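Appendix B. One record, verbatim.
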Amino acid sequence: MKLRASLIGAGIALALSFTATGTYAQASLELPQPSTVQSGIGVISGWSCAGPVQVVIDGTPFAVGYGTSRGDAAAGCGGNSNVGFALALNYNSLGAGAHTAQLRVNGANVGSAVPFTVVVPQGEFATGLHGTVTLNGFPSANKSVTLQWQESQQNFAIIAVTSTSAGGFPITFKGIRMDSLSTAAAEDGRTCEATLSFTNTTAASHFAALYFDVMQNGVATDQAIFPAFDIAAGASDSFTTTVVVDGNLVTCGEFTLQFNATDSVVF
């Protein structure tokens, strides 16, 4: 598969003198990190006290843009801060599976080759895809992040961070512990399905109707109901419902769900 790459920050080439011990050895390939998973459009980057700099990907060398400002590396490079390098790369073009990136300065390898894995969503550059998903409990227990597919990046990007509930998960209500709440786009891409996972922490079986307010711009516009049918003592289960507002379907990312203890019942 043809490998595509482009340069970032080209145009500033610095001529640095070599010391007897080899100044070029003072360099670091920072991205990708070893044993990470990559996909879509990304950047291979780092710093080097001298140039020229190449990154060798699976045995193929690529010149990189060199000379961008890296104040954090200046102390190790005799006070010179213009030592950054970067290479924009469509990781999908490498193909799915294991790969390596090796830093090379002035024709000599620096450090060991960095192993990484590529996951390809759909082809080298997927077009026409749409998708939004909400991840609850991240970056904290009472927050959620909404991710949306970005064709230009060939990857998902965070488009919103919102509060999910006052106390976060787990939420215990009359012996029913709600462990997590997640949303995901249905296969049609136009509807959003919410899944509530819960556990009966009591010594008896229970039925329950657990209500969550559908919040839009800080206002409750409808409710999502999660029934628990005859959940046995100590048992765990989950229920998935399609979220609607006034009878109309809504997509993930257009709302958040907040537990309503007033309307919920356990019997």
